[in-house]
Specification:
This protein is an all-alpha fold. It is built from eight helices and no strands.
Amino acid sequence: LMWIVSFPLSYTADRLIIKGYTSVTVSRKIWNSVAHWGGAAALLGFAFSGSNTTIAVVLYTITIVTNCCVYMGFNVNHLDLSPNFARILMGITNGTANITSIIAPLFVGQVIDNERNIGEWRIVFICSALAFFLANLAFMTLGSGELQPWNDPNFPSSLRSDSSNSNEVDCEKGAV
């Protein structure tokens, strides 16, 4: 379902940027917020759905569908920041994010004593929602969609304090 929904939403995100309705940075933050804060809201609803399986399934589905918006949020943001180093950035962020794949089962094992206890599961889902919320809050605060100066493979040499020497070198290389 995520895969299917991601196509029209990706197209929409690109059209909004191309038409000038949003900047790249604003677009990435909007879509990431839909993914994470929408998912967090659905997880909170899921935590308090009690024994109503229909509501639980609907909210869980909403969590999954809204999470596809990360493709238009932080996932593509690596290319915005640095096309030359996007694969390294993706490796760093995915590696860091996957630490939760190790920690989550350990956390659940510590919280859950009785698998049928809704209150214990509520704690797990509230903590998951909190993780979604805080991750997006960090992205909203610190995120950017602007090309970074360190994308240039010659970045350290461009930090010379004598700009005339830097221009001479650039002119000698044929750059204007």
